[in-house]
Each structure stands twice: as structure tokens, then as C-alpha cells.
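hi! just following up on the protien thing from before. the input was this:
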Amino acid sequence: MKTPLVIDYFSDVLCVWAWIAQRRIDELKHNWPSEIRIEYHYLNLFGDTGERIGKQWRDRGGFAGFGQHVIESAAPYEHAPVNADIWRGATPKTSAAAHLVLKAVETIAGGPGSATELDQELRRRFFVSGLDIGRLDVALSVAVESGLDGDALRKAIDSGEALAALMRDYQLAQQTGVKGSPSWVLNSGRQTLYGNVGYRVLHANVEELLHRPEQEASWC
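and the predicted 3d structure came back as:
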């Protein structure tokens, strides 16, 4: 069997554009179930929301203003519903707690890709239900409610193993030159698609890499 095309996918769980992009990820996997393999990584975009939102949006309404921006951004996308009180009610202080729990899942369950269901549930709990997933206890509770072993997750976190995996993701994002969330890195780092990229663009890039002659993969 031909080796699957690897797509390194970088996102932050608190990023609305990554919430919107999930439909495109699902479509890619549906169209090429065995031809591609998506490697999920997290990046430090909302690691400090007080700095990124509280300060940077101070003159534009602060967290409430940013929340309105999120609502307006998601409005055209029916598949990405957003709570009317987003960033007004629950205001997570960091995305790192949710990322840490997700890496703990990968640690105990077999590596990248094993936490995708919890990944989507955490995002849904924030964007739709308005839950503060920036709290470690809350993110762990969601994991347990989803059927995961809370004691095993806590052990992976307490040992530092999950944190080390998260730091590898953050460092890989920097080394790869990822600018923001979401980002798709293809062709061994030669191609990066970033932001609100339409599905047709993603499809065209993947199709080209899957079907073009191998000798054309890299030109001088």
C-alpha cells in the first residue's frame, strides 16, 4: 500500500477559524480515508488571553468586543455555531490547559490522532456551550465525561509527559514557521496553507501532491 500523504495540522482550541475549519478537515478525511494522514498539533496562540485579547482589544471593547468579532466571523458558517455570550461569560485565561489534556490523551492512547474526538468536544463545549475550558479541572472533567480514564490522564500530566509532548508541538510550530491557527503544512514543510482557507484550495493542493509524478516533487 502506498504511504499516506502526511498533513501536519496546527491549531489552537480557542481559535474560531479552527472551529470553522473542522468541516473542511472532515471533508478531506471523507474524500481520502486511506490516502492521507492528518497529524494534529497545537500552537501557542491563546496561551495568555489577558495579553492577546484583554490588552490588544482594549480599545475595541476588550473581551466583549472580541466576542462580537468571533460571532460575526462565524455567522456565515452554519456548521460552526457560536454561543451569543462567547468571550463575555466564560473567559478562559489560556488554551494551554485544554491542549495539555489533549496531549495527555495522546500519551495514554497511542499518539497523534487519538484525541480528535475529545478535541472536538472541548471546542464544542467552549464555542457552543460557553464552558471555560481554560481551567484544567474543567478540561479534565470533559475528558472523563467523554469516557476517558481520569486517573491515567492525571498521571500523564503529573509526570510531565503530557507537558513535554505539548512543548514539542509548540516548538514544532515555531520551527516550521507556522504563523497562526489553523495551518496545514504539506509536502514535508514545502507548502503551508494558513487561515480561513477554502475547501477547494485544500482539495487542489492535496490532489496535486497525491497524483503528480514523484520526480516533480522538488525543483531546484
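The first helix runs from residue 16 to 31.
The first strand starts at residue 5 and ends at 11.
cheers
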